[in-house]
Each structure stands twice: as C-alpha cells, then as structure tokens.
Design goal:
Strand content: over 45%
CATH architecture: Beta Barrel
Distance between the termini: 33 Å
CATH class: Mainly Beta
CATH superfamily: TonB-dependent receptor, beta-barrel domain
Structural class: mainly beta
Largest sheet: 22 strands, antiparallel, barrel
Shape: globular
Number of strands: 45
Number of domains: 1
Radius of gyration: 27 Å
Number of helices: 7
Helix content: under 10%
C-alpha cells in the first residue's frame, strides 16, 4: 500500500484553482451571487490576483487542502492542468522528482530506486527553500504551480516550471487549532489504515506567535509478496535439503508494502514593528515503508501466473527516509521596496533494499557465482542530500510606472549516493561446493559504490517592468549564474579476493552563463489580459567523475555533462468575469542538450549524459466558475507534443533514440474536471457532495527502442467522490478514491529487464508495474477550535 491508502485519504477536492472552505460553506446558500472568490498569489514576489499574473500559473488554496485533507502531492498535482506525475507510491516518493510540466523529460519512468545526479526539470520549493522530499502537504496556505522557466524570479533554476508549497504562518489574532482523524480501507488490503492530525496556533502577544502542525500516518499494505525466500538468522535463504541441493523454501507476505510516517512543523513569528518581521520554521518527517506498490504481470519460474496485487520478488523491499528543514525568513519594509532574506538548512536522507536477482539473471551474471541455486541479489541503496541556501531579494513597492525584483542566491549542496550489492549465501555455497573456506571469494558482497558530490551555485537575477500605458506593460529579466561542482567516485568488486582493484576518482568542473526573459502584457480590462513571453531556463551541469585510466577506465567523453537549456515561447489569455475564471496558454519549448540519467556502458557507473535537442509544443486550458451559489466546477485540459528533434546518442556515439522519438512520461492529452455541490440542511449544517476525475492518454516508459525498457504505458482515468456533512466547528466526510479501480500504470519494469530465469535458478520474477492507489473507501472527521 502506500501513502495512497489514506493519503488519498480525503482528497475530496481536486480542483486546481480555488476551494470552498468549511466555514465559507455555511454562508454559501445565504449569498445570492455566483461571484468567484479572489485568489491572491505571490509568484512574482509580491501579492497579486492570479488573473493579473502575466504567465501561466495555477493555485490550489490551503483552505481546500485543509478541509478536504489532501495528503498526497501526486494526487494534488494531477488536479492541475498540464502537470504529469510518475506515481511510485510512498516508497520512492522522495528519491527522484518526477514532476513533468510541458513534457520536458527524457528519463525513464523506472527511475526511483537511487538518487540521480542531475537536477529535476521542475523545481520544488517549501516557502523559499528549494528542496525535493516526500513532505506531507499539511497546514499550507496554498500551492502555486508556475509553468515555464522561472530563473529571473527564483534562485533555483528550472526548465519546465516551479511548484511552491507555501505554509501557514503563525497568527497574532488569537488561539486556534484543529484536530482530525481518518480511517480507510483499500482494495487488496486486509487491514484498516488511519491517520491523525493536529494544528495549534498560539499568540504569546501582539508581536509574537507560535504555530505547530503534526501528523501520524499508519497505512497497511495491499501488495502481496508471494514467493519470498525464508531466511535464516543471518538473512540467507534457507536450504531445507542441504546447501548444495537446489531446493528452496518460500513464504508469502500479505500486505507487505505498509507505510508509517510522522510529520511535525513548528514556526515562531516575531513582528516588533509594522516594517520588520522574522519567522523561524523547523520541519521534520520520518517515513518507513515495507515494500513497493507494484504488481508482477507474468509467471514465476514454475509457470504459475501472478494475480492482482502480487509481487514476484524473492525478497522484501523495505525503505525509509528522514527529512529535516530549518528556515529563517526576515522581511524589512523600506518604504520604496521590501528587502527579504531567506536562510535555510536542510538534510534529507534515505535507504532501501531492492530485488536485483532478475537483473542479474537477464544479464547472464549468475554463472559467475558457480550457479548458486538460491540466488538472492540485494541492492542496498542509500542517498543523502544536504544544503545551505541563502537568498536575498529586493522587491519594489508602490504603483508607479516602474517595478522591479532583484535577488542574489547562494547554495552549497552535498549529495551522496551509495550501493552495496550482495548475493546472499553465495560464499557459504561456494565453500561447501569446494569443501573448504575458499580463499579467492571474500564474501557475499559483489559491488560497492559511493558517489560524493558537491555543488555550489551563485546567481544574480531580476526583472524590471515598465508600464508604457494603462494598457501595456513591458518586462525584461536576466539571470547570471556561476556553478562549481566536484565529485569523488569509489568503486569496488570485492566478491573475488584481490581480483579487481578498488577505484577512487575525483573530478571538478565549473560553468557560468547569462539567461534572459522578455514579456509584453496587454490589459484587455481590469480583470483580463493577454501576454506574450520569451524566457530562457537552465539546469546545472556537473561531472560524473568516472575513471579514464586503469582497470575500470571509461571513455573521457563521460567525464562532464553540460547544463541543458530551454527557450520557452508562450502566448496566453486569462481573466475573470462575474462567475467565471479562465486561463489559456499556447507554448513552444526548444530544449538544447537534454540531460539523461543513465549508466556508463562498461562498468555501469551512475552517470548523466547530454543529448542534442528536443522540443515540445501544446496548449493549456483552465476554467472554473459557479453555476449557482451552491454549485462550483473546474476543468482543465492540456496537450503536449514532446519529441526529440535530433538523434540522441551516447558520449561514445552509440544511438539511444532517433530523431522524432516521443519523450517518456509525457502524455499528449491530460484532462481534469471537478464538481462541488453544497446543500443547506439548516442554518448550522451543510451537505457537500463532490466528484472529480483525471485522465491521461498513453505515454512512453523510456526513451528509445531498447527491448529492456521500451513500452507503452496505457491511458487511464481516476475518479473520486465524496459526501461531507459540515458544521461550524465540525465536519465528517465519507469518500471513495479511484471509484472504477483503474490500474493507473506509471512505470513498467519489463521481463527482459528483471524477469524470471529458472534455468539459472531464479524462480521468482522481478518484473513489475507501478500502479495507482486502488479503490479506497474512507471516513474522515475534523474538529476546529
């Protein structure tokens, strides 16, 4: 199971633009107007109505998130037009950022078991800290989704867009809080999941306030690992008829992919005057998962087919992660402008055990271990990501003809990725096979890999807007950045004693560039505008640190990967009328030197390489409104045609994908719709019913035509519904997720990559499909005070 089980818990709202809060619902029927609520965002670093922002932005209100208990970012982002997400469930949700906007992606959907070196194409922020982690979306003011490059407004660079999770600040006005709880039952699971939440706001004075949000989640799994080896006290497969006999002992583990997590955020806000304010925030989250939300489609080595929600791995695949984030934000009103300093320090790390036996078998490697009859190849992987970030911004005030944003950005980031691989029990088997303690085999570990990286980013960025008239605004922006990076790679193959030398390789690199932006905005009215934008985006480069001499030598062409860049061209129309809000944009993105996370061809070092070029073009449409004072709707549609525009070759010249190949994980069509209805039972109670849906067309699993990765991910749709009884201080909701129990496959590990191989002693099957959360019923309640 996964964060899904009830993480999808009470996402009774999937609309992308605005929400009806529980307290607002009580007044809805008393209002005879259908006028939409105003949405204010800070995407341009100042507070503005969303229809006044001259580019494509969506916002999900914090009120809706709170009232309907959205807990899962994947489901939240699927409600936003044009945003695609590879939904791996909670086990790998924080390892690799797989948010795709405007089809900008060349990585395989199967990534997720190890941390990749390249930065994501979409940046994510918690307030002003650029961080990607599996943090719960709790006690948020709103979530803003900005499409297109944002390097002239934000410190961290991005190609496809930026997602901002903006937390609620402590409030000086009075003591308040809420407690909530949920129960759920997911199809395929034999147990009930639960979650509990608390929010407290404590004002100590008119100038000092404290806020705390905490969550505990405990969800049972739904995936059964049906042919797991029975292990002895040392974690080695049991040999019931002796170590040299091929017989093995198996067991079935039901609901193996459980998920347990706790989350806490504490904030202290001090405002000694009307012009100065400081907020300190500390966030901590710990996660533990028992396995993958993935099913094997095929047969085991004995010819038995796997059933629904059954996984063919011969070992369990647990994972855990931990994230800490401390931030200090200070603002000073200078009159003519506001000066803001954002300082943050974060540390996120995690580890997992992955079934790798099928990979060994499909590569024909098991013969190197004297055909050990009970092969269990374990990949013990870990990652660390910690950084210090400082960002200073000056944002102009007032309504004059000139406005500006200027910022300085610094980030010092340390990353580490490790892998320890073992063929559990191979040493004992070989010793028994040869009748002694074989000196040429050192133990069960056959691979040891450590990659340490450091990235230092410095940037100056800004935008200047000039009002040519009451109708026309012109904006120009620029960003200068300098990046320095270094890496150290350690690699060893310790299985055969002294046969392979250990490797230590160090390399460093630097780069600097200038990016630009131009925007022309025409105000059609006070509530509508048209705009045209050209903006450049980038993603930092780096080095792979592979050896170029000695036993593990790779081609020097693998040493460095360049930053990749986009030129984003966009025209749009947006605005609002009395009872409708709309947003339409057409875009074309030219992508140069796209980065692909892969492995070197000789020794399999984790590496990043550049392709030549790709492009994506399409349209994004959002509309929402109130049909009546009690009926609210929202709809979104996106079309993205994302393809290579030249052959994609490896650094040594081998063809990976041909010109015209469709980019992976980029469905051409995405559609989302939501409908809310509020019925007044009395002056003190409301009944709110809702249905929402998401559809995406088929997508590619990976770039190129490799038989091991090439596959089509089928189209799917996910539908949710709920009924909520809402009072002034209390509400209770009955809901169902994935009403039609769609599989929602987001990645395929093929038989050719990890399938069964009984001729090599592997009777399990490591191939699998990553699926969406199955049909889930739930009950949620919230009390506010």
């Amino acid at each position: 199971m996964a964060i899904g089980t009830l993480t999808k818990l009470a996402l009774v709202s999937t609309t992308a633009l605005s929400g009806i809060g529980s307290t607002a619902l009580l007044a809805a029927d008393k209002d005879t107007t259908t006028k939409l609520d105003e949405i204010v965002v800070t995407a341009t670093r100042r507070s503005e109505r969303i229809e006044d922002i001259p580019y494509n932005i969506s916002a999900v209100s914090g009120t809706r998130i709170d009232d309907f208990k959205m807990l899962d970012s994947a489901e939240l982002l699927r409600s936003v037009s044009g945003v695609a997400v590879v939904d791996r469930g909670p086990r790998n949700a924080g390892t690799v950022n797989s948010i795709h906007i405007r089809g900008l992606n060349v990585d395989s959907n199967t990534l997720g078991d190890y941390a990749t070196s390249s930065a994501p194409t979409v940046s994510t922020y918690i307030n002003d800290t650029p961080i990607f982690a599996n943090l719960m979306i709790k006690d948020l003011e709103r979530v803003e989704v900005l499409r297109g490059p944002q390097g002239t407004l934000y410190g961290s660079g991005a190609l496809g867009g930026t997602v901002r999770y903006i937390t609620r600040k402590p409030d000086f006005d009075g003591f308040s809080g809420q407690v909530s709880g949920s129960l759920s039952s997911v199809k395929g699971s034999g147990s009930i999941g639960w979650s509990s939440d608390i929010v407290l706001n404590v004002p100590f004075s008119d100038t000092l306030a404290f806020r705390f949000a905490g969550t505990r989640q405990d969800y049972p799994g739904l995936t059964d690992y049906v042919n797991v080896y029975n292990l002895d006290a040392n974690g080695i497969p049991i040999a019931p008829k002796g170590i040299l006999d091929p017989t093995a002992s198996y067991r079935s583990v039901k609901d193996a992919d459980y998920y347990k997590a706790w989350f806490g955020r504490a904030s202290l806000r001090w405002r000694p005057s009307d012009t100065f304010e400081v907020t300190a925030t500390y966030t901590r989250q710990s996660d533990k998962s028992g396995g993958r939300r993935a099913q094997t489609v095929g047969k085991d080595g004995y010819g038995n087919p796997y059933g629904k929600y059954e996984n063919g791995s011969v070992q369990l695949e647990p994972a855990n992660s931990d994230t800490e984030l401390g931030a200090l934000e200070a603002t000073l009103d200078l009159g003519f402008a506001t000066l803001t300093s954002s300082s943050s320090l974060y540390n996120t790390h995690g580890s997992s055990i992955s079934e790798n036996t099928g990979y060994y078998a499909q590569n024909g490697w098991l013969g190197y271990y004297y055909n050990y009859p009970r092969p269990m190849a374990s990949a013990d992987r870990a990652y660390k990501d910690k950084a210090f970030v400082e960002e200073v911004r000056l944002v102009s005030s007032g309504d004059g003809p000139v406005s500006y944003v200027f910022g300085l950005y610094y980030q010092d980031q340390d990353r580490q990725a490790t892998q320890h691989s073992y063929l559990r029990g191979a040493k004992d088997y070989i010793d028994a096979l040869f009748g002694s303690d074989v000196p040429w085999v050192s133990g069960d570990q056959d691979f040891h890999y450590v990659l340490d990286e450091n990235f230092k980013q410095k940037a100056a960025y800004g935008e200047l807007t000039y009002k040519l008239s009451d109708k026309i605004d012109v904006t120009v922006g620029a960003r200068y950045f300098k990046n320095e990076s270094s890496s150290t790679t350690f690699m060893a193959l310790p299985f055969y004693t002294d046969l392979f030398p250990e490797l230590n390789s160090t390399f460093s690199n630097s780069e600097s560039k200038i990016l630009f932006k131009g925007n022309l905005t025409y105000h059609l009215s006070d509530d509508s505008l048209a705009y045209a934008t050209w903006s450049q985006g980038y993603r930092r480069g780096g080095q792979n640190g592979v050896p170029t001499t000695g036993y593990f030598a790779e081609s020097p062409a693998w040493l460095v990967y360049k930053s990749d860049r986009v030129d984003n061209y966009e025209i749009g129309f947006k605005g609002s009328a009395h009872d409708i809000r709309y947003n339409v944009s057409l875009f074309y993105v030219d992508w140069s030197d796209p980065q692909l996370n892969t492995a070197t061809p000789v020794w399999g070092f984790f590496a990043v390489q550049n392709g030549s070029s790709a492009a994506t073009k399409g349209i994004e449409v959002e509309i929402e409104g109130n049909l009546t004072p009690s009926i609210h709707y929202s709809m979104g549609y996106a079309y993205a045609d994302a393809k290579l525009t030249s052959d994609f070759t490896s650094p040594v010249g081998s063809l990976i994908a041909s010109d015209g190949a469709v980019l992976p994980g980029a469905p051409k069509h995405m559609f989302n719709v939501a409908l809310d209805h509020t019925y007044a039972i009395s002056d003190k109670a409301q009944l709110v019913s809702r249905i929402d849906g998401y559809f995406q067309s088929s997508a590619r699993n990976a770039i190129g035509t490799s038989v091991r990765y090439d596959a089509t991910l089928p189209a799917y749709s996910l539908w949710n519904g709920s009924v909520a009884l809402v009072f002034d201080k209390f509400d209770v909701s009955l809901w169902v997720k994935n009403i039609f129990n769609a599989e929602g496959v987001s990645a395929i590990f093929k038989e050719e990559l990890m399938g069964t191989a009984p001729d090599q002693g592997y009777y399990g099957n490591g191939s699998k499909q990553q699926i969406a959360l199955p049909r889930t019923f739930g009950l949620s309640a919230t009390y506010r005070f």
